[in-house]
Fold this protein.
Amino acid sequence: MVLPADLRAAEAQALAALVQALGARAGGRWTVELRFEGLRLLPVALRLLNALNRVEPRATLVFTDAGAAALARRDAPDQADRLTSLSDRQRLQRRAAETGDAAADDGVLVLAAPSQAEYSEVEEICQAHRGAVVLLNGRLEDAAIGIGSVARERRRGFLATWESAYALIPRGASALRRSFPDSWELYRQDPDGFRLASRFETKPDPEEIDQALAAEGQGLDVAAGLGALDRFIEGLRN
C-alpha cells in the first residue's frame, strides 16, 4: 500500500485495516490514529461508525462526555442509538453486571479521542467489555507523567494491551504509516512527493526515525520536500 492522497482515502485504508484486525482477534484492543493538524474528528468518527456497522452491526461510538455525544446525535440522528458517552457506558455496564445481561458487553466499542484525564474510565470500560475496543486518536499516555512508577506500571499493564490497526502520522519532513497486518512504514518527502524510506516491525521511536531519514536523506531538497508535506496534509484535511 501507499500513502493516501486525501482524507477519504485515509479513512478507507483505516477501515480496511481495522476490519482485518477485528477478524484476526476477537475481543482485541486496537488503535486507529490519524494525527495531523486541523482534523475535525467528529465527522471522521461518524463515517467510521457508519462504515463499520456494515460489517460489525453492534458497533458503538463512545465520546468522552455527554456534550460531545449530544453533538454527535444532532449531526447523525440516524445513528443516535449507537452514540454514547464514557459515563453512560459505565452505567450501562454496571447495570448489566447486576442483571446478568451479557449482551451489553458484546459488540465493538469505538472510543473517540480519550485523553489521559479519562484513563481510569477507559480502563474500567475495557476491563468490563468482552468485545473488541477501538481507540480512535486516543492519548491515554500523558508526557507529563512519562517517568516514574505510575507511568512504568501503566506501560507494562493496560497500555501494553493495545495494538495498532492503522496509523497515519505526519512527522517533520516525513510520514509514518501502519496498516494491519503490515509492518510500520516510514515515508520521506522528495520534491515530487513521498517515497518509502524504511520499514519497522514495531513502532519506531523518534531516534530510529531520525536515523532512518538520515541514511536516506542525502541530496534532499528541503524546501521542495516541505512543500510536498504541506500539500499532503492539506489533502488530508479536506
Observations:
- The first helix runs from residue 7 to 24.
- Confidence is low (pLDDT under 50) at residues 218-226.
